[in-house]
């Protein structure tokens, strides 16, 4: 807090300015280090509105957590750690007539010395401060009537349950809701998701979690880096060098020439013609066919054939292009309609396009933004309709096949590209208005014309 009323939040060498505030608001804000009741700034006074603005700015930057405590006890019952920038504790109303059950995506686990309650559907994580709350949560694996919980006098806090309901960790069952089992999770698009797949998807991407992501070297102090090449097995050895000739076919040469390109020539960007050729070579649907039912009475299933392999011939991957610099094609977001070999424009804000390109530039530690950023999204249901347990891993394997196809085609065409390992699934969901569990990003590839290396004379 500075003398002129400016408040800045600093964390390591990162800092954000939160605006200028009155002396009274600064005094009130000092309480934030120990706790400020939400109700204390809901009023209409100037002071309340100032504190409310400050608190919401802190929340948007992920700098707040919310403590739920019994007024009689000092001990935290629960501390809420937001996982998405929009999270704000809200209560979804429950009455004594309601029946609630835990979502099948909810899980309790030990984190350090704490017990945390999480769900890939929730915008926040709940740190459980009292074992009795964990016991009540365990009882909620079966539907429970609120009135019954009240009657049993379980350690029960309606406020907490309403927060959990808002976060979709608890579900309210209506009269037709059955026992809250798989198909009744409240969203038909979740039926096909296995628990571990949805957790993996949200925990291995950015946007729906607040944990550090990417090259963090978390345990570098404790564990040395494994070597680049595996130490040999001690068994007898057949030296292959005398059997294999130096690779010389055009394909072998292409494989040897392939490399990642992160620096693009923005004076000579990739052209629409080249992009069309690239997509035709790598991703176009070449033919469509129908397969007989997999089981008696099962439905007929439609298939397509494309240039890369795909598990179960599912071809669940879709391409979304964030175009920043392509000759003949306006800046914007496009879906590649692989069936009819066409680009379809999707309205996205300039700010969102910029955020996506800048994130890709950051991930590549590149001097500029990619000319075209290809986001590979999966239609999750297309593959999980058939496969359980391995569905998500198959999707990631398909992405690998596609990325190598992109690399080789780009090399063949004299273009350059680079795979990108981190993706923000929340930003993509906002850009496309597609919910994160229906169709979402699983890979990215930056495409462009690489800068020619200057050969010293
Ligand atoms: C799945 C995958 C993810 C990758 N993610 C990134 C990334 O986020 N940033 C980056 O600069 N390079 C990324 N790369 C590129 C690798 O760093 C690169 O392939 C590797 O260093 C070998 O170099 P080469 O491709 O030039 O042969 C990724 C590659 C793959 C296959």
From TrEMBL:
InterPro entries according to UniProt: Nitroreductase, Nitroreductase-like, Nitroreductase/BluB, SagB-type_dehydrogenase, ThcOx_dom2
Location of the Nitroreductase domain: 255-449
PANTHER family referenced in this protein's UniProt entry, alphabetically: NAD(P)H NITROREDUCTASE RV3131-RELATED, NADPH NITROREDUCTASE
Cyanobactin oxidase ThcOx second domain boundaries: 100-209
Protein name: Dehydrogenase
Source species: Bradyrhizobium iriomotense
Domain of life per record: Bacteria
């Amino acid at each position: 807090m500075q003398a002129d009323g400016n408040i800045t939040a600093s964390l390591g060498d990162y800092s954000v300015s939160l605006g200028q505030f009155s002396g009274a608001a600064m005094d009130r804000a000092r309480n934030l280090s120990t706790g400020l009741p939400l109700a204390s700034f809901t009023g209409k006074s100037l002071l309340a509105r100032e504190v409310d603005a400050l608190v919401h700015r802190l929340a948007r930057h992920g700098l707040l957590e919310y403590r739920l405590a019994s007024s009689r006890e000092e001990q935290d019952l629960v501390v809420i750690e937001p996982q998405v920038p929009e999270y704000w504790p809200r209560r979804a109303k429950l009455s004594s007539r309601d029946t609630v059950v835990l979502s099948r995506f909810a899980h309790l686990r030990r984190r350090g010395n704490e017990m945390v309650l999480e769900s890939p559907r929730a915008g926040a994580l709940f740190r459980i401060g009292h074992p009795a709350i964990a016991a009540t949560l365990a009882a909620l694996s079966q539907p429970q009537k609120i009135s019954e919980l009240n009657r049993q006098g379980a350690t029960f806090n309606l406020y907490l349950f309403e927060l959990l309901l808002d976060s979709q960790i608890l579900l309210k069952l209506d009269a037709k809701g059955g026992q809250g089992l798989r198909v009744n999770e409240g969203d038909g698009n979740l039926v096909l998701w296995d628990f571990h797949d949805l957790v993996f998807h949200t925990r291995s991407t950015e946007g729906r979690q607040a944990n550090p992501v990417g090259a963090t070297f978390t345990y570098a102090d404790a564990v040395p880096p494994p070597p680049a090449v595996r130490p040999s097995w001690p068994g007898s050895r057949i030296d292959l060098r005398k059997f294999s000739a130096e690779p010389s076919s055009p394909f072998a040469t292409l494989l040897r020439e392939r490399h990642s390109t992160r620096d693009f020539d923005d004076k000579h960007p990739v052209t629409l013609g080249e992009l069309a050729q690239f997509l035709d070579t790598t991703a176009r649907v070449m033919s469509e066919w129908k397969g007989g039912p997999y089981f008696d009475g099962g439905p007929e299933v439609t298939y397509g054939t494309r240039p890369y392999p795909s598990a179960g011939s599912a071809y669940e991957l879709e391409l979304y292009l964030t175009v920043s610099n392509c000759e003949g094609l306006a800046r914007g977001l496009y879906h590649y309609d692989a069936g009819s070999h066409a680009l379809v424009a999707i309205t996205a804000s300039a700010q969102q396009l910029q955020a996506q390109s800048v994130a890709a530039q950051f991930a590549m530690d590149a001097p500029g933004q990619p000319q075209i950023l290809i986001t590979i999204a999966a239609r999750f249901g297309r593959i999980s309709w058939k496969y359980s347990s391995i569905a998500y891993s198959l999707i990631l394997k398909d992405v690998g096949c596609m990325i190598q196809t992109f690399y080789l085609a780009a090399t063949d065409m004299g273009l350059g590209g680079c795979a990108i390992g981190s993706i923000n699934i929340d930003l993509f969901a906002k850009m496309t208005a597609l919910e994160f569990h229906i169709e979402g990003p699983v890979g990215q590839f930056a495409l462009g014309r690489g800068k020619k290396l200057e050969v010293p004379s």
